[in-house]
Amino acid sequence: MLGHRIRQHTHGESSVAARYYCADSENGDHVDDPSEDALFMLIDDLNDTDNTFVVIQPDQDDPSWFASVAVLKNGGYEIVRLDTTRREHDVVVATSTDHIAGDLTKWLAARAP
To answer: CA dihedral defined by 52, 56, 57, 61, rounded to 10 degrees?
Structure first.
């Protein structure tokens, strides 16, 4: 279901590499330079069986930062943000997909070159 929505969202961009970063979910969904709405959809479609996480990172070998969102078995999501160049490592638990997508969008914007 999400793959269809994401493909619609990124229609026409599939042959162009991400300018800043990309998001990949466990079920194979991939979005280059995801918007806040795309992050919301990726997170909202996570479940505790076959699509448990999404990772956002630069579209390059050996990235210096990443963020991930994973479903917790008891409900909610674990958000990990790691940036080795800024010596940041943050792990939080949240329940609102709106807030998670918004916070990640702000965090990611600070990493765009």
So the answer is: 40
